[in-house]
């Protein structure tokens, strides 16, 4: 695995950089990104105007003296503002800002640079790009539907962690994660999360496509478990929870049927019992979500009968807000970390170390932190983020954002519109966010393997 100090970035942003210099017409852009606008149509003219405005913005950004990053006319250059908002669509978490110590055990010093870029699962997350059909914005199978990225983000994070090719447990042991990876290999469990996660406090929204939080989704995955994507395909819209209509696994039915033959019960009873158990689990989880503070920084451990144990989920941790060291330690010790960020200005990013977020930021997007390091040319420290806007965006679907060398109060500000993405009912009207693009504010990591 190459170190970030020595990493030479391929020319991910080459085409975008050329376009940013004014060498690409809108017609060439339409052809390059396979748009299907009809020349002379109202749609064509509207997108053309948006493209021209973005081209001027790109040129202005790239004229900045001592700039750290390069803007470009990538695949989002003709998106309407509301489409960009839907693409981000993140509903994060608000609540306790307690400064509790991290639950991670500090058993070793952190390296200067580290990343999980060798993971094959990252390629799947990177390819979750929206595409266009007949001039309309259409989501792919694992899409970024408006305010459902809380589900898509967590589902992608679990797939990345379960697909990793090495183990970094505290005890040095590794466990076979192939069954877990197989569970999520066919697609994301985002549909199940959108439809079924209880959200009685209206944290991040009212549930489903109107919003929830990664904490709620992680709690659901641990207590209730997750189904294969083929059983509950993601449709980018809320619907009735389909768990009650699912059947137990064939092995479960066979075992139970053999038992019931001796006890005089029918196999149909097993299915009814299964659905009744699912309903009971969801009711219990709704009560837990209503009466528990899932936002407080701590480890949530799986009980002996938690369904998440079936794919190795021993628990999950809400990291202390606005602190860098616990975040980097979780990344190194446990694997990729789900973080919430302010991504309003990300759509024109092409390459380099991004530093275009103000101190006051509105958290609106869910992404996966996969590494950190130092740029070999500029010496700038950065976080490495895996986004889900397609491999044609940014540096092969990723973005590097500026990182300070320690927790720095100078890089803190306020999210004064938490109702647009992070607030629960009754929460404060503003929350403190730290790090470039608020990256330190809200982070969640699943625990697989041994828990201390």
From TrEMBL:
GO annotation terms (biological process): proteolysis
Keyword terms, alphabetized: Signal, Zymogen
Location of the Cathepsin propeptide inhibitor domain: 26-84
Record keyword RNA-binding present: no
InterPro entries (UniProt xref): Papain-like_cys_pep_sf, Pept_his_AS, Peptidase_C1A, Peptidase_C1A_C, Prot_inhib_I29
Domain of life (superkingdom): Eukaryota
Similarity-based family: Belongs to the peptidase C1 family.
UniProt name for this protein: CEP3 protein
Protein's organism: Symbiodinium necroappetens
């Amino acid at each position: 695995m190459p170190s970030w100090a020595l990493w030479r970035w391929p020319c991910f942003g080459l085409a975008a950089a050329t376009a940013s210099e004014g060498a690409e017409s809108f017609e060439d852009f339409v052809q390059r990104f396979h748009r299907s606008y009809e020349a002379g149509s109202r749609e064509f003219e509207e997108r053309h105007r948006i493209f021209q405005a973005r081209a001027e913005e790109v040129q202005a950004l790239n004229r900045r003296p001592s700039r750290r990053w390069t803007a470009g006319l990538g695949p989002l250059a003709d998106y309407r503002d509301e489409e960009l908002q839907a693409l981000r669509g993140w509903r994060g978490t608000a609540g306790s800002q307690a400064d509790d110590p991290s639950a991670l055990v500090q058993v070793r010093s952190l390296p200067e640079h580290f990343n999980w870029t060798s993971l094959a699962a990252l390629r799947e997350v990177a390819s979750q790009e929206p595409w266009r059909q007949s001039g309309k914005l259409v989501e792919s199978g694992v899409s970024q539907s408006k305010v459902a990225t809380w589900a898509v983000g967590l589902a992608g994070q679990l797939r990345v962690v379960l697909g990793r090719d090495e183990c970094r447990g505290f005890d040095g042991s590794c466990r076979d994660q192939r069954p877990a990876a197989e569970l999520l290999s066919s697609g994301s469990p985002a549909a199940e999360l959108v439809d079924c996660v209880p959200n009685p406090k209206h944290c991040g929204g009212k549930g489903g496509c109107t919003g929830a939080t990664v904490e709620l989704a992680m709690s659901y995955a641990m207590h209730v478990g997750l189904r294969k994507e083929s059983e509950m395909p993601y449709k980018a819209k809320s619907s009735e929870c389909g768990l009650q209509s699912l059947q137990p696994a064939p092995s479960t039915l066979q075992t139970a049927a053999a038992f019931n033959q001796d006890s005089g019960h029918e196999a149909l009873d097993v299915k009814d019992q299964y659905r009744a158990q699912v309903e009971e689990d969801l009711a219990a989880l709704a009560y837990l979500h209503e009466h528990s503070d899932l936002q407080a920084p701590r480890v949530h451990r799986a009980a002996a009968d938690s369904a998440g144990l079936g794919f190795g989920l021993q628990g999950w941790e809400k990291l202390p807000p606005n602190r860098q060291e616990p975040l980097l330690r979780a990344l190194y010790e446990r694997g990729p970390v789900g973080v919430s960020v302010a991504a309003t200005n990300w759509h024109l990013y092409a390459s380099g170390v991004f530093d275009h977020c103000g101190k006051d930021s509105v958290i609106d997007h869910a992404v996966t932190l996969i590494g950190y390091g130092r740029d070999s040319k500029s010496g700038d420290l950065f976080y490495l983020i895996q986004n889900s806007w397609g491999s044609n965006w940014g540096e092969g679907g990723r973005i590097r954002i500026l990182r300070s060398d320690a927790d720095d109060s100078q890089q803190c500000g306020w999210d004064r519109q938490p109702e647009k993405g992070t607030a629960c009912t009754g929460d404060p009207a503003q929350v403190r966010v730290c790090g470039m693009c608020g990256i330190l504010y809200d982070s969640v990591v699943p625990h697989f393997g041994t828990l201390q």
